[in-house]
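The following block was generated as part of the benchmark described in Methods. Ligand: arginine.
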Amino acid sequence: MPTVYDRVVELPPDLLASCRPMPLPRRVLMCPPEHFDVFDVHNPFMQGNVGAVDHMRALDQWEQVAAAFRAAGAAVELIDPVEGLEDMVFCANPTFVGPDADGARLCILGNMKFESRQGEVRHFADYFAARGYDVQYLIGDEVFEGGGDALWHPGRGLIWGGYGYRTEPDSYEQISDFFDVPVLRLRLTSERFYHLDAALCALNERTALVRSPALAPAGMDLVRAVFDEVIEADPYEAENLMACNAAAIGGEHVIIPSGCARTSAALRERDFSVHPVDTSEFLKSGGSVYCMKMFLFD
Ligand code: ARG
């Protein structure tokens, strides 16, 4: 029965084991940064960076991110970039996709907070509809920023749902119903962690990477209750380099923003294979590895 949980005391026993198994993503969707830019300020990283993107470097860094996904074993699919949609490169945000209870492909459209990103949604809707996804939208006008705030638990039909700066908490009732899975809802407490994917990275079914002060205590308790192992990201690296905006492939390869030496060492200590990539141009917009792709589960 789909439900939204906010506190550990509400959890049924063995929640994780009771959630249906799910495949790990073997493909990612990316959008070339042809029109990527910083035109205005929607998060603290963008402050001081209007007009500061080096477009050649951005293109080069994006190629390195795509290459890192391929090297880690994930195929890279592409959506065409659209002129005037400068944030479209952050493919994780305008939709949320995954298998529904019958294993069919479902795409829930985002309801983006800022006008500059609202135009992205229909292009992703067309992309997924053309590939046989059931494309749905949320009823009402709650903000929902897709895979930036909603994260699948690796290998399980369970969703982690962040809110506080972009996505509004009520949207998760509908998300839970659409996918017929429980949602564990987490409040974000720090503006530099304005999307959940800036504060929490689910590495595999047992392990998470997190910047714990960016989550309200009740949410952090949920993370500790569900994951066997919780790795703390280095505070400086999480705040300034988006260390938690990493992406895990196959439960063992972690593609992480470069410069996160302490966080990478903590991951290697737990036997993860760590692949740093320079995303400095995208950090100027408040995004990095995780949000530069959408996981695909088919
Ligand atoms: N400039 C974009 C925005 O503010 C960056 C989005 C990055 N996405 C993410 N999931 N962290 O919307």
